[in-house]
Amino acid sequence: MSEARRSSVDAVYASVDELRRRLGGPRRLADATARTGWPRHGVYLFFEPGEVREDGVTPRIVRVGTHALTETSRTTLWRRLAQHRGAVGGSNPGGGNHRGSIFRLHVGTALIARDGWHDVARTWGRGGSASRDVRATEVELERAVSRTIGAMPLLWLDAPDRRARGLIERDLIALLSNYDRDPIDPPSPGWLGHHADREAIRRSGMWNVNHVRDQVDGEGLRLFHEPVGQ
Question: What is the pTM of this model?
């Protein structure tokens, strides 16, 4: 096992502790709104109930994400998080659209495999849009996905620079991923992600697919640590 990698992972969690302190603790999407107070742009870190580091106490990061990495994108941090959260009110309270959120799609595949949503499996994740009838058959699973993601605590880092967001996301995922590496902070035996249909999720121990096999560049880690003074 690379001691350098372990040292880098520990340093990330030291910065996460400071970030947690500065933000006054994590939030849960189930309780969040646009008025809760978010930076316009940022990088977000999801944790998951029951998932902890090897010390048995420290919450383990299970997903790293960002948004608006192209010049034409106008998506804000909250808008992206709201896509992951799903609907709160309206005609489909508690539902959502997994075709607009890759995080929702992945969590849904894991729930299908673990809990036997076989009637939904044939349409879940198929196409960029779906008919009203298809959406009606998927609505209860969408609600289950909303409950699952909504219960996950998250922290966020204000990151107004587009290039910096991409570098931070890439390096954090590359560092924390256990894909084809000696595991550091492996997922618990009961982690929902073990049932995901993407090998990258199962082998990395994270709800990420991109960057799980990448090598750490270093610049993204520096950009992550700098704002929290680590």
Answer: 0.96
